[in-house]
Specification:
single chain, eight-stranded mixed β-sheet, four-stranded antiparallel β-sheet, globular
Length: 684
């Protein structure tokens, strides 16, 4: 690696932090002076994401996400650290958002996205003097930024509206000064809505190139298809590789895609044509090989993601991960082209791995994660240049920080939350492994002990169930569950059958069984395993979960009355109504069910918590965003009304303006936590 003159960075790098922000942070610190984790502490949490190593391997730029108590939002700023850990400072900081950093091939410039001037645009920053240029002035959202090898052009993706009108309608002329209602909207596409976005404006995603010094973006792709995902330039810089589904029936093939290339004249060439999805292309340093991720086309809820390598000028293709029973992600070529780096979730955590082109795998780092601030989901990111790796890694008591790996040595580069959590007593996280009562399947879980835990005492227990259901929790920091623990609860969570990071067989144990007595048995057996430890008050058991976890919680209280109270967040209550009203019907019906709902009414009904509502006696709090299109609030309303008819104590908490992610803003996360705590406290 080249030595880097750190002092030369000082000019133009430091951005003054407004005094108001400093005052704000001081105020929050003063208000959060208790020794246990409080609701107010959530506003002070920060998390590191998206590390990007400079081409010389000496620096890493990353996105530093923090919460703003005044705007009730998450703020993304760019910070830069030296790989040796001696330097750490702001690069682009303030109340605007700066994110998606991408180094130029020479490392003299940095492209990024920002809303500093209102609409999100693409910018380029010269690293020697801090000067910044506005590269685009577009009206649609930009994504997947990628530099050409010579640094002269930047490719990106952007939506282009489809202005075609489905009907020729002649309306009467509106009189001058008349106040008519808004014109009608037309819906013609199979995918016409999306959670968090509402009714979609018809559009197609296309690939553009723009001079890196600014200018007019030029559209490369064409046709009524969506082109995008990760973009990769050829070594010669004459074409861009991307993934797309360009079949005539693409709207109904949600999990199909192939890899294509497009040259600078707009000529598109298909590179792969396997059944299923091929995506995330990466070109080898010598330009001879294409690496990509691949999942097969079987109509199942979960399929492993494999690492493929294809020779561009020949028929040779190889699956480098065929003997690995988990999904690989985030692939990067080694600088000599002899292998690739990747990340993989395994038993609730993330490993950083490497494979040669001969499929010889080795684990470089374990324990990556900490990217999720609210609940302990398994997530991490990394980047590599010149065989220097930067990655995100947290602890059970800390969200993710930036670490480096060089020549086998790890170094922690940031410690973003020591000011907030360093003086706090957090709940200790411990692992528990047990057998499910229904079939003896091994289930892994974790539990969080209250601060100042006394094993001689009896504590109430909260079972908290993750979403997905094909996701995973792990031993990671969780603001929500630490708050429960701080209020005196033991919090138990598991990776029940259907969870990822345990192989394809385990994930598919929930195929056509979501939710059912099978996953319930996994949770119920875990509660029993916790009671056997001797410090759980079995008369004070509570259950909570969101999304798929909300479904599982609602289903569970139809099977048992052992819980004193339940908190059911954004659930599906009636699958027959949900799949034909939510935004996910195209991807859910073909993969999670045996067929169409009107042809399999009994199966959909059996999976529905509403089918068991006649058994429910458990007091139930329901909480859902009013703008949720993934699990529409009409689902929550069905359960609420059914429980009211049965005179079961229930409250419906509606979150105004919120989509499916009801904890997406700091105050909403706090409201979710504190309402659940208040409900459970009512039934202590």
């Amino acid at each position: 690696m080249m030595k880097f003159p750190y002092k030369s960075l000082i000019l133009g790098m430091l951005v003054a932090v407004p005094a108001s922000l400093v005052a704000q942070e001081n105020l929050i610190t003063q208000e959060s002076s208790t020794t246990t984790f409080t609701a107010e502490d959530i506003f002070n949490l920060e998390v590191a994401t998206s590390p990007r190593v400079s081409p010389d391997g000496e620096r890493v730029v990353y996105v530093r996400r923090s919460n703003d108590i005044m705007t009730d939002s998450s703020r993304a700023n760019l910070w830069i650290a030296s790989i040796d850990g001696k330097s750490h400072r702001p690069l682009l900081s303030g109340q605007s958002n700066f994110y998606s950093p991408v180094w130029s091939p020479s490392g003299n410039r940095l492209a990024y996205l920002s809303n500093v001037e209102g609409k999100t645009q693409l910018y380029v920053r010269w690293m020697d003097n801090g000067q910044t240029g506005l590269v685009t002035n577009v009206q649609a959202s930009i994504g997947n930024v990628s530099w050409s090898p010579d640094g002269k052009q930047i490719a990106f993706t952007m939506n282009v509206n489809d202005d075609a009108k489905p009907l020729k309608v002649k309306m009467p002329k509106k009189p001058k000064g008349a106040n008519w209602s808004k014109p009608v909207k037309y819906v013609t596409k199979a995918k016409y809505q999306a959670d968090g976005r509402g009714i979609l404006t018809p559009a197609y995603k296309h690939i553009f190139v723009v001079p890196s010094e600014g200018g007019t973006p030029r559209q490369l792709t064409s046709g009524d298809f969506n082109h995008g995902g990760k973009l990769a330039w050829s070594k010669q810089g004459d074409k861009v590789y991307f993934s797309a589904n360009r079949h005539k029936d693409w709207e109904y093939q949600q999990r199909d895609s192939d890899i294509f290339s497009v040259n600078l004249s707009g000529e598109i060439t298909q590179i792969t044509s396997d059944e299923g999805s091929e995506y995330s292309p990466a070109i080898s340093p010598d330009g001879k090989y294409l690496a990509y991720l691949d999942t097969d086309g079987k109509k199942l809820a979960y399929r492993n993601r494999h690492l493929m390598v294809k020779k561009l000028n020949g028929d040779w293709t190889k699956n480098l991960s065929k003997d690995i029973d988990n999904s690989l992600a985030n692939i990067h070529w080694q600088k000599n082209g002899k292998g690739l780096y990747y990340q993989m979730a395994e038993r609730g955590s993330v490993i950083l791995g490497y494979t040669s082109l001969k499929s010889k795998h080795k684990v470089l780092v374990t324990g990556l994660g900490g990217g999720s601030m609210g609940r302990p989901y398994t997530s991490a990111t990394f980047d590599v240049k010149d065989d220097v790796v930067a990655f995100t890694k947290g602890r059970t008591d800390r969200p993710a920080d930036i670490f480096s790996l060089y020549r086998g040595k790890q170094k922690q580069l940031t410690a973003l939350n020591e000011d907030v959590l360093g003086h706090k007593i957090l709940g200790e996280v411990k692992e528990v492994v047990y057998k499910s009562s229904i079939d003896g399947e091994e289930i892994q879980g974790w539990y969080i002990l209250p601060p100042n835990f006394d094993p001689k005492k009896k504590y109430p227990l909260i079972l908290e169930i993750h979403g997905g259901p094909h996701l995973s929790y792990g031993p990671h920091f969780t603001a929500e569950l630490q708050r429960f623990a701080a209020e005196g609860y033991v919090v138990f969570y598991d990776n029940h059958r259907g969870s990822t990071s345990y192989g394809e067989r385990f994930a598919l144990l929930l195929q056509n069984k979501y939710s059912s007595k099978w996953d319930f048995a996994d949770h119920d057996s875990g509660v029993n395993a916790m009671i056997e430890k001797g410090f759980i008050d079995e008369n004070r058991l509570y259950i909570a979960g969101g999304s798929a976890g909300g479904i599982a919680s609602a289903y569970a209280i139809g099977l048992t009355d052992r819980f004193k109270a339940a908190a059911v967040a954004k659930p599906v209550i009636n699958w027959l109504s949900k799949v034909l009203t939510a935004d996910s019907y195209l991807g859910q019906i073909p993969y999670q069910f045996p067929g169409l709902p009107w042809e399999h009414v009994e199966h959909y009904w059996e999976r529905s918590p509403l089918s068991l509502v006649g058994n429910v006696t458990t007091p139930t709090l329901l909480i859902t965003g009013e703008d949720d299109r993934r699990t529409p609030i009409s689902e929550t309303e069905q359960f609420y009304q059914a429980l009211k008819l049965r005179k079961v104590d229930t409250i419906m908490v509606r979150v105004p303006g919120s989509p499916h992610g009801i904890a997406g803003r700091p105050s909403r996360m706090i409201a979710k936590i504190e309402n659940i705590l208040a409900w459970f406290d009512k039934y202590k």
